Amino acid sequence: MLPTAALKRWLLSMLLLLPSTAGHPHEQDLEPRDAQASTLAKTESLPIEVFPSKGTCALAGDEKLNISRYYAVSDYLTFFNHDENFHPRHSEFPNQPRGVVVTCMDARLSPEKSLGVPTGSLHVLRNAGGRVKNILPSIIISQLVFGTRDITIIHHTKCGMVTPRKDLEEALHEQVKHRLGRDETDKLFKELDFHPISSLEESLKEDVKTVQNHPLLEKSIVRGFIWNVTDDRIYRVV
Questions:
Q1: Residue 26 in marked binding region
Q2: Does the annotation place 82 within a ligand binding site?
Q3: Is 104 annotated among the ligand-binding residues?
Q4: Is 87 assigned a ligand-binding role in the annotation?
Q5: Could you tell me whether strands 150-156 and 99-104 are parallel, antiparallel, or unpaired per DSSP bridges?
Q6: Domain with residues 93-162+197-236, CATH architecture
Q7: pLDDT tens, position by position, 68-85
Q8: In the chain, where the domains are located
Q9: Which residues of this UniProt protein bind Zn(2+) (predicted)?
C-alpha cells in the first residue's frame, strides 16, 4: 500500500494525464475546486523538474509523469496555482525593490533564492548570457522610477553564450535562413548584437564598467558574480 503522501502525488499525476479535449488539466470536474485546492495545499510542493516538452517528466519524489508534447507549460502553471490558498497572491508581495539583478535566462538559476532575499525585493532582469547592454533601458527605469541603487550582475559557468561570436552567429543564422532566405536573414542579423562571452571574468568586468560609466545611470553599488552550476554557489568576482 502506498504511503499517504505518495498516494496523493500519484492521484495528482493521474489528473494531469487525463485527455485535454474537455479543457486544461485543471478544468477536469473530478472533484469540487475547493476539494482539489485542499488536497493540493496539504501535499508537498510538486515542481516540474524537467522541462515538459515530451517524454518523461520527473516530479518531486519518485513518481514519473508522462507528459504529452501538446500540453502547454501554462496548463501546468495554471493547475498548480489555481487557488489563492495554494500559493500567496503575487499582488500581496511588496513592489519595493531594493536592487537590480541582471543575469542569464538559464532556467536553472533562481536569483532570489541564490541571494537569499524575499520575493518582491529585487528587479530581476534576464537575457541570454546576462549581458547588460541589451537591458540598459530596464536598469534606467528601475533607477529613475523605483530609486534602486544596488546592481548585481551574475554570469554562470557552462553558459551557452560562452562561445566565439562568429560561431554563435553562424549557428543561429543556419536556424533561420531556410525560412527567411539568406539575404533577409543577413540583413536582420546585422541589426542584432547577441553579446557572446569569451571569458566569464572579462565579461563581468566589462558589464560592471558599462553600468558604472553610463551617463544616464545614477552612482550605484555595482557587483559582479559568477554562479557555479556544479555546486550551486555564487562567487564574487568584481
A1: no
A2: no
A3: yes
A4: no
A5: parallel
A6: 3-Layer(aba) Sandwich (3.40)
A7: 444 455 555 555 554 444
A8: 4-87, 93-162+197-236
A9: 104, 106, 156, 159
